[in-house]
Amino acid sequence: MGQTQETESRKLLGRLREALASGGAGQERLDRITQLIAESMGTHVCSIYLFRDADTLELCASFGLKAESVHKTRMRLGEGLVGKVARTRRPVNSTNAPAEPGFRYMPETGEEIFTSFLGVPIQRLGQVLGVLVVQSKEARQYSEDELYGVEVVAMVLAEMTELGAFLDEGAALSPLHQRPVVFRGSTGQEGAAEGRVLLHDPRVVVTNPIGDDPETELERLRAAVARLRVSLDKMLDTASSGDEEATQVIETFRMFANSKSWLRRMEEDIARGLSAEAAVEKEQSAARARLARASDPYLRARGTDLDDLSNRLLRELTGQGSDTGAERPENPVLVARNIGPGELLDYGRELKGIVLEEGSVGSHAAIIARAWAIPLVINAPGITTEALTGDPILVDGENGVVHLRPDETIANAFRDKLAMQAKAQERYSSIRNEPATTLCGETVSLQMNAGLLVDLPSLSTCGAEGVGLFRTELQFLIRNKMPRRGELAQIYARVMDAAGDKRVVFRTLDIGSDKVLPYMKRTEEPNPALGWRAIRVGLDKPGIMRMQLQALIRAAHGRPLTVMFPFVAQFDEFRAAREMFLEELEREKVMGHALPAEVEIGAMLETPSMAFAPRQFFEMADFISIGGNDLKQFFFAADRENERVRRRYDTLNGSFLGFIQQIVNRCNETGTPVSFCGEDAGRPVEALCFAAMGLRSLSMRPASVGPVKHLLRRSDLREVRKVVEEARANGDQSVRPALMRHLATLDLSVEPAQPSQRAAG
Ligand code: PEP
Ligand code: MG
């Protein structure tokens, strides 16, 4: 890099800072900046294009192009050379712009006389905010140094745009983090919430993009890198006691932190006039842009590592973000890229909503959100970059939509919707103690799903008759080491205490697949959902399963105990697990411990094979619980964790309902009680169909009990069954349309919670 260029660039940034400090309206500042850049680079034109909306770039300031084209000239993303720079996030450097493929001539600007073109993205953290362009009449070749200098200026512009430096009434310069944005993700948990953003991992705000003195900035950078290295060494020392994965991640971090080229690039940015923070962010942005282009998963993962490392370095430099929860807004809505169950539990139930950039519906965070009935939207890309702690936010869990910084009209409509939901809930509470008896006189037992002690109070408030599924794995997942028998026994006893005389169905540990214990050696499996999980782990590692069974027996201490084994795929597995339980009962008896007053041993039916199990299986099982989440994924061969396929098949698909009916029939043949405990049981229309297929027990999240009960009490199962049968006979793929037509004829004065077209779960 040439010394002169360095000084030139620094000089320009210095003048830029003066221009920004000298006040004036946003438009005035932008105009001054374009003039400064053009003069300092000796070009005829300098223009700044910013995004008006997600797809449209607008010429917001120009020195050299016709003044009347400012705020008039617009182009779509990808259109013309400017649009190309924005779309590809890469510079375009051309001596003969009109000859470039994709060049688009804008007559109103008078740019036909300018031959050479250099455009660079104005971007921050991989998000393109606009394009900075310089143009000259002659066929000029902009040098690498000049390109680099323009990139540095663009970086400063990005920071200033972000900070609202160009905000001007009436102008199209609404900066990032101030305008309303809508995110369309997917439903993780229904419900609606209004609150303020609480960023899980707050981003560092750079307030001083231009450095005063390169020497001071270099020193600051080097000192921060040194502190970062020490902290990584410390992390490695603590992690090396067995956690292979954490060790690997930290090793990669260390590799980057020691990378000479990374440090050199940042030093060069500082020499050009950036502050240490802006230099780190510039490299981070570049890495993110590269990451967005990489298709190789390995490269993408490495890019994410570098991104995390840059964040750490920024925190070292600014001291921001290291404190936790200091300024927690009221009605917090947690916004995160992704979050583990332990971290979510730390935030607690006071969260009004959760929005994740990634996440999946079967993840534990989702399960906890569901247990807490907190609206959750997943797959909302870009929200962690756009949202700031304290921003107003509306979460529409039903439709998977998030309104960030909504305008008043949207917010008011949303509040109306919230008020309607609250009213409906109030009305549901009036039937809390009534049975779910249908118009044709059939009564369906409604139970609730739970997984944490804190869920239990819902039992009395939601109107459930008992806990139809208690997922025991959460107790294992939220710890960093295997819980002890005594600890578990205490928790289970408290669950039973809280349930009083209501029945609790304890499902033994269901780990593997999406539920990975942080302290158990991880085995790479090509298809984890079809892999070593649940009862398979329990039978192969009997120590854990026996310990859990003992804890359950001790917790019951003379009370009735109900245990259920998950993911049974053949009769022998159930037989072996049941045998294990009976042995543990015998052992407890020998040891003189109080035995449960009575025991029920059931099986989950969540693999299609068990629908075809021998009659003896149904005779041996004290009860069967259909795990629809898993059963559905295997029935349709559609991974419940994979957003691309999991909503493809409607639960009300005629064949699936027929399959459920077959299972119910098999249970009825042997008089085996059968229930359904997958997520679909909590969707009113689905629940109605299951009841019509003969199910008389459904277990769901607490918030669903009211809406499901309401719909059942207003329905005649014989009619529903007729509708289902006719639709199936007609060859309808899904019975939903026919059923919705039927429901439209009924008097449902309280709106049932809107069923999603295709169920999640
Ligand atoms: C199911 O598969 O339907 C179920 C209830 O179990 P989980 O969601 O915990 O796998
Ligand atoms: Mg399951």
Overall description:
This protein is α/β, with parallel strands linked by helices. Helix content is 44%, strand content 16%. The protein contains 26 helices and 23 strands. α1 (3-21) runs parallel beside α4 and α5 (214-239) runs antiparallel to α7 (260-271). The longest helix has 26 residues, at 214-239. The radius of gyration is 31 Å and the shape is elongated. Residues 169-174 and 751-761 have low confidence and may be disordered. Bound molecules: phosphoenolpyruvate and magnesium ion. Magnesium ion is lined by residues 566, 606, 627, 629-630.
N-end to C-end Cα span: 56 Å
Uncertain residue segments? 169-174, 751-761
Number of beta-strand segments: 23
Largest sheet: 9 strands, mixed
User: Which percent bin holds the helix content?
Assistant: 40-55%
Q: Roughly how many Å is the radius of gyration? A: 31 Å
Query: What overall form do the CA principal axes indicate?
Result: elongated
Strand content: 15-25%
Number of helices in the DSSP assignment: 26
Bound molecules: phosphoenolpyruvate, magnesium ion
Average of pLDDT:
86
User: Structural class, please?
Assistant: alpha/beta
What is the gist of this entry?
It is elongated, with a radius of gyration of 31 Å.
Describe the structure using short key phrases.
761 residues; alpha/beta; nine-stranded mixed β-sheet; binds phosphoenolpyruvate
Task: Break the fold down into its secondary structure elements and pairings.
Layout: H1 3-21, H2 26-41, E1 45-53, E2 56-63, E3 74-76, H3 80-88, E4 92-94, E5 116-124, E6 127-136, H4 144-162, E7 181-184, E8 186-189, E9 192-199, H5 214-239, H6 244-257, H7 260-271, H8 276-293, H9 297-318, E10 332-336, H10 341-347, E11 353-356, H11 364-371, E12 376-378, H12 383-386, E13 392-396, E14 401-404, H13 408-429, E15 436-437, E16 443-450, H14 458-462, E17 467-471, H15 473-477, H16 485-499, E18 504-507, H17 535-540, H18 542-556, E19 561-565, H19 571-590, E20 599-605, H20 615-620, E21 623-626, H21 628-635, H22 654-670, E22 674-676, H23 684-692, E23 697-700, H24 702-713, H25 717-729, H26 736-744
Parallel strand pairs: 9-10, 10-11, 11-12, 16-17, 16-23, 17-18, 18-19, 19-20, 20-21, 21-22
Antiparallel strand pairs: 1-2, 1-6, 2-3, 4-5, 5-6, 7-14, 8-12, 9-13, 13-14, 15-16
The structure holds phosphoenolpyruvate and magnesium ion.
The site of phosphoenolpyruvate has 10 residues, from β17 and α21.
